[in-house]
Amino acid sequence: MNFEQAWNTFRTMHDKLHAISHALGVVQYDAATVAPRGSAEGRGKTMGIISEMSYSIQTAPEVNEAVAYLLENKDQLTPAQLREVSEFNKSNEFVSSIPMQEYVDYTVLINEAEDVWHRAKQENDFASFLPYLQQIFDTNRRFALYYKPDNKPYDTMLDMYEKGLTMEQADQFFSDLRSHIVPLLNKCMQAPQVRDDFLSRHADIATQRTFSDYLMEAITIDRRYCGIGETEHPFTTNFNKKDVRITTHYHEDALVSSMYSVIHEGGHALYELHSGDEYEGTFLSGGVSMGIHESQSRFFENIIGRSRQFTTLIFPKCQELFPDVLGDVTAEEFYRAVNKVEPSLIRTEADELTYAIHVMIRYEIEKAVIAGEMQVADIPQEWNRKYKEYLGVDVPDDTHGCLQDSHWSGGSIGYFPSYALGSAYGAQMLAKMKESIPVEDCVAEGNLTPITDWLEEHVWRHGCMYDPGELLERAVGAPFDPSYFVRYLEDKFGEIYGV
Ligand code: ZN
After folding, report:
1. Per-residue confidence of the chain (499 residues) as pLDDT tens digits?
2. How far apart are the first and last CA of the chain?
3. CA–CA gap between residue 441 and residue 448 (Å, rounded)
4. Whole-structure pTM over 0.90, yes or no?
5. Residue 493 Cα to ligand 1 middle (Å)
């Protein structure tokens, strides 16, 4: 084997894997959006076969040989090529550590589990989802141990979503946040509450669809390359940088629910749409980690989307589209309403302040279950107990409790901390950005370009070239520091609630 042969083998393998993941992604997107409810069974078989193909391509002996050759001849690789081969090698070590049948069975399990979860959530029936959830937790623990037998399994899972993250760091991060958020929350709760009654007025869904198009444009999404669908749980998926899909969920009695889903998912989409051209068609294209991804989505949703400047900017359009909802409301009332702080049941609807507590509850449950300190069957009871302890709310049923999120049914265990980390990364990026850009003035004028240019330059275009910690440090010129997030929350909510 020579360098050229090894590189060709590697590149061909990438292209095949990418084609397979494209096909699988379209099937999954279809399943989540328009496929009829009874279609899961037939799709499961297709997905099993496709994932078997993917496994075989990735773990083929000639691929292993090529990767070994390339890693032995590092000096012939460019830095990007070296990064690509090394990153592939790491993910391949994970996949190769799993026996093929177990890998395939898991894909089939997830396909079924998503369907079962969906029904269980609608019917408040945790018992029907329990056997699937049990298998998902067991399988994830087993896979983590196949991959890194000497690591604590949950550390391995955290690291897969946010490279370098450990339970020790996450424990510290959450306890820091909690020590600042809880006192601030208590102060806000003692202050007069803001008015938000109008947000539950009837908002026509067809008009909300028009509003989504407006919002996507407002945050600079190029619609030639980004579509929008409707699902139970909003998400973003991308097939390449010119085909990104976001979804939302419309509620007739909660206009801002979809509004902020669209802006959140739009933030994910922008990151994918602006991945560097030089990385397209390689393993380095697209977002590097869930934490950085959430930093972008939550930057648009909260730092931009829930700013006084942005809500004021779009308010005339909101009033025009929804006169029955906002006709008798001022822009300032609208701003305060979308920033209302209140301990609540649903993570995706939570305000910026209590959001991290929702995440912390999920983190603590995952950690305990994976460590064998909590039974999967006890999740509902533990969930409800923690909501009462941390947020003071009573969970009425599992639909509004442990069945609310789609993550576990999709096999994502270790993902949740990324949301809270993302919020904190975003606040640190904002502080750095403000050194060179009048961020608030730009938003007030409806000119997001200096902001998106900054993000493109420092985050988006780098694809997966750097680890998340390094990417953040290069962007902001300092190591990760959650105190920016705490200050951001204290300033913003201190002003709104006068505390
Ligand atoms: Zn997100």
Report:
1. 899 999 999 999 999 999 999 999 999 999 999 999 889 888 988 988 998 899 899 989 999 999 999 999 999 999 999 999 999 999 889 988 999 899 889 988 998 998 899 999 999 999 999 999 999 999 999 999 999 999 999 999 999 999 999 999 999 999 999 999 999 999 999 999 999 999 999 999 999 999 999 999 999 999 999 999 999 889 999 999 999 999 999 999 999 999 999 999 999 999 999 999 999 999 999 999 999 999 999 999 999 999 999 999 999 999 999 999 999 999 999 999 999 999 999 998 899 999 999 999 999 999 999 999 999 999 999 999 999 999 999 999 999 999 999 999 999 999 999 999 999 999 999 999 999 999 999 999 999 999 999 999 999 999 999 999 999 999 999 999 999 999 999 999 999 999 9
2. 69
3. 10
4. yes
5. 23
C-alpha 299/C-alpha 282 separation (Å) is: 27
- Parallel, antiparallel or unpaired: strands 243-248 and 226-230: parallel
Architecture label for domain 167-497: Orthogonal Bundle (1.10)
- Name the region of 77 (left: φ>0; alpha: ψ -120 to 50; beta: rest): beta
**384, amino acid identity:** N
Per the CB < 8 A criterion, the answer to whether 24 and 50 are in contact is yes
| Catalytic (active site) residue 265 | yes
Contacting residues for 454 by C-beta, under 8 A, at least 6 apart? 433, 436, 437
Q: What is the DSSP letter of 204?
A: -
348/131 Cα distance (integer angstroms): 26
- DSSP alpha helices (H): ranges in 219-328? 255-273, 290-298, 308-321, 323-326
Q: What share of the chain is helix, strand, coil (3-state, %, to 5)?
A: 70, 5, 25
Neighbours of 41 (CB within 10 A): 10
Cα of 420 vs centre of ligand 1, distance in Å, is 11
The Cα–Cα gap between 369 and 496 comes to 39
Which residue in the block uniquely carries the two structure tokens 């292993």?
A: 64
H/E stretch holding 239 reads: strand 236-240
Q: How far is the CA of 233 from the centre of ligand 1 (A)?
A: 11
Residue 182 alpha carbon to ligand 1 centre in Å: 24
Q: How far is the CA of 340 from the centre of ligand 1 (A)?
A: 21
Domain boundaries, given as residue ranges, for the chain: 3-150, 167-497
What is the Å distance from ligand 1's center to 438 Cα? Answer: 26
**Active-site residue, from 84, 265, 301, 352:** 265
Which of 235, 245, 247, 244 minimizes the C-alpha distance to 280?
244
Local structure of residue 150 (DSSP, 8 states): T
